[in-house]
């Protein structure tokens, strides 16, 4: 399943509430590490159809940054039944994979 692009706090909250397993990639177009992780994230979204993969550009959205306490980009947050179950900050592929496997183990 392709990555869903979301750019609004309300839309993001709805997507998290409406799906059992969600990973949100908070990033920015000008971030080199975000650009490195993007194709990996895209590939994972096609491999794990039981997880909803969302990308949120935080360039101009202070509400999203504040609500989800984003201090480093990229930040990947893992949600299970609307509850945050984990977080990975930075371009650490093995940590991202560990989070994906944690969500699929349920």
UniProtKB/TrEMBL annotation:
Q: Which domain of life is it from?
A: Eukaryota
* Pfam families linked to this entry: Thioredoxin
Sorted alphabetically, the keyword list is:
Disulfide bond
**InterPro entries to which the protein is assigned, alphabetical:** Thioredoxin-like_sf, Thioredoxin_domain
What residues does the Thioredoxin domain cover? 1-106
In terms of SUPFAM superfamilies, this protein maps to: Thioredoxin-like
Q: Which PANTHER family match?
A: THIOREDOXIN-LIKE PROTEIN 1
According to UniProt, the name of this protein is Thioredoxin domain-containing protein
Identify the species of origin.
Coemansia pectinata
């Amino acid at each position: 399943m392709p990555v869903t692009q979301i750019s609004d706090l309300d839309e993001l909250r709805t997507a998290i509430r409406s799906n059992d397993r969600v990973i949100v990639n908070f990033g920015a177009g000008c971030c080199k590490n975000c650009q490195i992780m993007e194709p990996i994230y895209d590939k994972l979204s096609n491999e794990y159809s039981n997880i909803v993969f969302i990308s949120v550009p935080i360039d101009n959205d202070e509400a999203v940054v504040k609500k989800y306490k984003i201090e480093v980009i990229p930040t990947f947050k893992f949600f299970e039944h609307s509850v945050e179950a984990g977080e990975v900050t930075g371009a650490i592929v093995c940590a991202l994979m560990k989070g994906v496997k944690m969500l699929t183990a349920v």
